[in-house]
C-alpha cells in the first residue's frame, strides 16, 4: 500500500502529464494524438464528444432518450446524428487526418469549448471550435477560423453522420424565405432502431459579413470562396438536434435552431454560451492555490458534472454522463451517493433535478415492490426513462442490489436538510414514506427481536446473496430515521415499525471490525462498503471504530478493478480524522490511476478505459469539499468545520456553498 502511494505521488509531480503543454487552471491542452480519449462538450441536454480527427466529432449523446438495444432488448441511451462535421478542401486538396501538421487541442473549462488547431502544408492554419450551447439546450455550433498563408480557394461542406442505431435516414436542403430573409437549412431525420423516437438535426452556415451562397453536393451542403493571404476568415456551422421525446414535431423544431442562429449571429450565440458558463462558475467553483495539477483535475471534474445536467429538466446523471453509452446511460446509485453531494453543495438546482427524476418514477418503484411481494416503493438498480428495472437480466444487481431505495430516500432528506424547505418536503413526503414502508416489509425479524435483511447484493458487488450487508442495513436505518424526522416536521403519522426496525436492524461486528456482511471472512471487496457507514451515512461515529474499519478495509479493496469511488471516501474519512498525508494520498489515488490521455478524463478503474466516469469525479470532489474543506451535511444544513489543507497546497477556496452562497477558505 505505501509503495503504491509513493509511486502515485511521484507520478503526480512529474512535469509531463499526458502530453499537455501551455495549460493553465482553466485550460487543458494536448499536443499528442496518441491513445486519445476525447472530452464531452455538453450542455446537460446533448453531449458532443471530441475527436482527434480534424473537423469531426466522435459521437453525440442525447440525454434521457432511450431505445431498446439489439443485443438483448434492454434500453440504451441514444446516439444522435452528428451534425457539426466539415469537409474542407484548400485548392482542391482535402484536409484529412493524416495530412495535417502541428495538431493541437485545447479544452476551455471556463467557457465549455474545445478548439483544435492545425496547419495544412504551406497553405493555411485552421482553428476549429465546437460547443454545445449552455444557454440554448438543443443547440450547438462549430466555429472555423482560417488564416491563409497564400492566396487560396476553399471549399467547405457540412456533412452529417448517422450512427448505425438510427434507421430510415432522410436528408434535405432547402432555402426558406420570409420577406427579404433567405434562410438555408440543411437537415437529416432518422428513427431510432425500433421506431420509438424520431431524431432530427438541422444546420446552416453563419458568416462574418456577407453570406455565401450554399449549394448541395450529394449529402453535403457548403460553399466555395477565395481567400487572400494573411486575411483571417471566420464562419460557423450552427444548428441543433431534437427528438420526439421532447417535441411533437422534432423536424420543424430542429429547423428553428439554425433559423434562430441566423438571426443571432456567431458572436451573440457564443457570448450567451460563455455567459451561461460564467454564471455556473460564479455560483460554484473550487480554487486550489499552489498545485496546478490538482486545480486542473478538480475543475475538470466540476466541468464534467455541470456539463451532464441542467436545472429544472427532471433528468438525472448516468455514470458516464453524456460522454458515451457506457452502462447504457442508465441511472444508478451513482447519481444519489456519488455525484449528488457535490451538486447539492454547489449547484442545488441541478441536485434537485436528480430528485425530480426519481419523484416522477415513484409509481414505477411502487410497482416493482409489488412485483417482488413487498410494500411501498422499491427503486430499480438501473433506471431509464420509464422508471422500470432496466438492468440486463443476467445481472443479479437488478433484483438484489436494493440499497438504491435507501440511497434515493437519503438524498431527498438531505435536500430538505440543506434548504429547510418544508413546502418541498410536504410535496415529496411520499418518496420518504413509501421507501420506509418498503424496508419494514423487506426485513425479517430474528428470535432475539432484532431484524435482518437477507439475500442481497451490497455496495461490495463481489458478495452476492449475502445476509445483513453492512451498507444495505445502515442505509435502511438512516432512511427510516430520516422518514421519522420528516413525519415529525410535517405532522404526518409515524408508523411505529419504522422506529422498531431502525433501532434493531443488525450490523455485525467481529473482533472489533464492522463486518461487510454476516459471515464475512476477509475476502477482497469491489469497493467501499463498511466505510460508507462513517461517511456519508454517519451511522458509525466513534473515531476509533472508524479508524479500525478504515485500516482493515483499505487493504481489502480490489487494487486492479475496484472503481475510483472508494479512494474518495477514504480520503474524506482520513481528512476528518486529521490524517493529512493519508487523506491526500487517497485523494490522488481517487483520480490519477484512472486518468486517460491527453486530458486526464476519468476511467472507472485503473484497469479500464471507459471514460468519462462522472461517478468517480463526484467521489473525488467529495474528498475536496467534505474532506479537506471541512464541510459537513447536517439535519440543519451545511456545517463548516475546520478544514485540513494538504501540505502540497497553499490554500483551498470553495465558492458558492449553501443557500447563502458562502465562500470558505482553508489555509
UniProtKB/TrEMBL annotation:
Positions of the Glycoside hydrolase family 65 N-terminal domain: 40-155
InterPro entries xref list: 6-hairpin_glycosidase_sf, 6hp_glycosidase-like_sf, GH65_N, Glyco_hydro_65_M, Glyco_hydro_65_N
Descriptive protein name: Glycoside hydrolase family 65, central catalytic
Keywords assigned: Hydrolase, Signal
Pfam family, one: Glyco_hydro_65N
Signal peptide: 1-23
Glycoside hydrolase family 65 central catalytic domain sequence ranges: 299-520
PANTHER family from the UniProt entry: GLYCOSYL HYDROLASE-RELATED, PROTEIN-GLUCOSYLGALACTOSYLHYDROXYLYSINE GLUCOSIDASE
Keyword Hydrolase attached: yes
One Gene Ontology term of the molecular function aspect: hydrolase activity, hydrolyzing O-glycosyl compounds
Organism this protein belongs to: Flavobacterium frigoris (strain PS1)
Keyword Nucleotide-binding: no
GO biological processes: carbohydrate metabolic process
Amino acid at each position: 500500500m505505501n509503495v503504491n502511494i509513493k509511486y502515485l505521488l511521484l507520478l503526480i509531480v512529474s512535469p509531463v502529464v499526458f502530453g499537455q503543454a501551455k495549460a493553465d487552471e482553466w485550460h487543458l491542452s494536448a499536443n499528442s494524438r496518441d491513445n486519445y480519449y476525447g472530452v464531452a462538450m455538453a450542455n446537460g441536454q446533448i453531449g458532443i464528444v471530441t475527436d482527434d480527427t480534424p473537423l469531426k466529432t466522435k459521437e453525440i449523446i442525447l440525454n434521457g432518450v432511450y431505445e431498446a438495444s439489439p443485443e438483448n432488448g434492454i434500453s440504451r441511451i441514444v446516439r444522435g446524428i452528428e451534425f457539426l462535421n466539415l469537409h474542407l478542401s484548400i485548392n482542391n486538396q482535402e484536409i484529412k487526418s493524416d495530412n495535417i501538421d502541428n495538431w493541437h487541442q485545447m479544452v476551455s473549462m471556463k467557457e465549455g469549448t474545445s478548439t483544435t488547431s492545425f496547419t495544412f502544408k504551406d497553405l493555411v492554419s485552421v482553428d476549429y471550435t465546437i460547443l454545445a450551447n449552455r444557454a440554448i439546450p438543443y443547440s450547438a455550433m462549430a466555429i472555423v477560423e482560417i488564416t491563409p498563408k497564400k492566396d487560396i480557394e476553399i471549399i467547405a461542406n457540412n456533412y452529417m453522420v448517422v450512427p448505425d442505431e438510427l434507421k430510415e435516414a432522410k436528408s434535405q436542403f432547402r432555402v426558406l424565405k420570409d420577406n427579404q430573409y433567405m434562410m438555408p437549412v440543411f437537415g437529416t431525420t432518422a428513427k431510432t432502431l425500433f421506431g420509438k423516437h424520431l431524431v432530427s438535426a438541422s444546420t446552416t452556415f453563419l458568416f462574418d459579413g456577407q453570406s455565401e451562397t450554399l449549394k448541395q453536393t450529394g449529402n453535403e451542403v457548403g460553399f466555395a470562396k477565395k481567400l487572400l493571404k494573411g486575411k483571417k476568415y471566420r464562419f460557423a456551422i450552427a444548428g441543433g438536434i431534437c427528438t420526439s421525446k421532447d417535441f411533437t414535431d422534432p423536424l420543424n423544431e430542429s429547423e428553428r435552431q439554425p433559423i434562430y442562429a441566423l438571426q443571432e449571429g456567431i458572436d451573440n450565440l457564443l457570448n450567451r454560451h460563455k455567459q451561461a458558463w460564467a454564471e455556473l462558475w460564479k455560483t460554484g467553483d473550487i480554487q486550489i492555490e499552489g498545485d496546478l495539477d490538482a486545480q486542473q483535475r478538480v475543475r475538470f471534474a466540476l466541468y464534467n458534472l455541470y456539463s451532464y445536467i441542467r436545472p429544472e429538466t427532471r433528468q438525472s446523471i448516468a455514470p458516464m454522463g453524456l460522454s458515451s453509452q457506457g452502462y447504457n446511460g442508465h441511472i444508478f446509485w451513482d447519481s444519489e451517493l456519488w455525484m449528488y453531494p457535490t451538486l447539492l453543495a454547489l449547484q442545488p438546482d441541478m441536485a434537485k433535478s436528480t430528485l425530480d427524476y426519481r419523484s416522477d418514477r415513484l409509481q414505477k418503484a411502487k410497482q416493482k415492490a409489488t412485483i417482488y411481494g413487498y410494500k411501498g416503493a422499491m427503486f430499480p438498480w438501473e433506471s431509464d426513462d420509464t422508471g422500470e428495472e432496466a438492468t440486463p437480466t443476467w445481472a443479479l444487481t437488478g433484483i438484489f442490489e436494493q440499497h438504491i431505495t435507501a440511497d434515493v430516500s437519503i438524498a431527498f432528506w438531505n435536500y430538505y436538510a440543506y434548504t429547510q424547505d418544508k413546502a418541498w418536503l410536504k410535496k415529496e413526503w411520499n418518496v420518504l414514506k413509501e421507501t420506509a414502508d418498503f424496508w419494514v416489509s423487506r426485513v425479517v425479524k430474528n428470535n432475539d427481536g432484532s431484524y435482518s435483511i437477507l439475500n442481497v447484493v451490497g455496495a461490495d458487488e463481489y458478495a452476492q446473496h449475502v445476509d445483513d450487508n453492512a451498507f444495505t442495513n445502515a442505509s435502511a436505518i438512516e432512511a427510516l430515521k430520516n422518514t421519522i424526522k420528516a413525519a415529525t416536521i410535517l405532522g404526518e403519522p409515524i408508523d411505529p415499525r419504522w422506529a422498531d426496525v431502525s433501532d434493531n436492524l443488525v450490523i455485525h461486528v467481529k473482533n472489533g471490525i464492522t463486518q461487510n456482511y454476516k459471515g464475512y471472512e476477509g475476502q477482497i471487496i469491489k469497493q467501499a462498503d463498511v466505510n460508507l457507514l462513517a461517511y456519508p451515512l454517519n451511522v458509525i461515529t466513534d473515531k476509533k471504530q472508524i479508524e479500525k474499519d478504515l485500516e482493515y478495509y483499505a487493504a481489502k479493496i480490489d487494487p486492479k478493478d475496484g472503481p475510483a469511488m472508494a479512494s474518495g471516501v477514504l480520503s474524506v474519512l482520513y481528512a476528518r480524522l486529521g490524517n493529512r498525508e493519508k487523506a491526500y494520498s487517497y485523494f490522488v489515488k481517487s483520480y490519477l490511476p484512472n486518468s486517460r490521455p491527453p486530458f486526464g478524463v476519468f476511467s472507472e478503474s485503473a484497469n479500464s478505459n471507459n471514460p468519462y466516469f462522472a461517478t468517480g469525479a463526484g467521489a473525488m470532489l467529495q474528498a475536496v469539499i467534505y474532506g479537506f474543506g471541512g464541510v459537513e451535511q447536517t439535519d440543519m444544513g451545511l456545517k463548516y468545520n475546520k478544514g485540513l489543507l494538504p501540505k502540497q497546497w497553499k490554500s483551498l477556496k470553495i465558492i458558492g456553498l449553501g443557500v447563502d452562497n458562502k465562500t470558505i477558505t482553508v489555509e
